[in-house]
Request: fold
Amino acid sequence: MEHPSVHIERIYIEHLSLAGRPAPGMHWCVGPTMPCEPQETPMPLTVRCTTEEKVRISVQPKTRSGKDATFDGPVVWTVLSGTAIVTPIDDTSVWVQPGPDILDSVISAEGDADLDAGIETIQDLLTLQPEHPRAASMGLTADEPVLQDS
Reply:
């Protein structure tokens, strides 16, 4: 049975109830991402990928008014839980890939927002949800024709 697919550009939900028989399900995915209005409180990001994939994660610091900002030094990435592998690309980007176990991983990104001698750390969180890869094609092939048995 094919399930209908819905594409939502932006959604703001305060309360959501799903009911029915059989119980309906809901699947949320991220990607491709699009910029949105700056928020007072950062929202944790959840990213799904297979164990064959990796995802580039970047930070783009903004001021409270939404203008571009910089950090004093590189962003520090830390795997707080799970077995994800984080590989730095540059001061603000990393590759994130699932580790050997199919477990959710929580990763923090921390940067020093104080460009002077002091330190004012800001942080955001990322949850990586790995899954096993699925077959994407049948791989149908045919051998050369042969004569039929009489």
Remarks:
- DSSP finds no helices and seven strands in the chain.
- The mean pLDDT is 81.
- The longest strand covers residues 121-131.
- Residues 48 and 145 are 44 Å apart (CA to CA).
